[in-house]
Design goal:
This protein has helices spanning 3-10, 22-29, 32-41, 43-52, 57-65. The protein is an all-alpha fold. It has one domain (3-65). The longest helix is centred in the middle third of the chain and has 10 residues, at 32-41.
Length: 67
């Protein structure tokens, strides 16, 4: 999946719903499987997925770089 597809999927959901967890945003955007694979094999893509989902930078660092 390329960056354009990631942003297209991320933009299809309401990212203003702060009640959702990161996992819920990943699930509702259809990016969960892509993110899980990227977390193991392509950390820059995992990082970009979380940026597209408007996850705060502190959380992104903790999620992507602690694994």
């Amino acid at each position: 999946m390329n960056i354009e597809e990631v942003y297209r999927k991320a933009n299809q959901i309401d990212l203003k719903n702060n009640a959702f967890t990161v996992n819920e945003h990943l699930y509702h955007s259809g990016l969960m499987q892509t993110f899980e694979k990227a977390l193991v094999k392509n950390k820059p893509l995992a990082f970009e997925i979380l940026i597209a989902l408007k996850v705060d930078s502190k959380s992104i660092e903790r999620i992507v770089f602690s694994k």
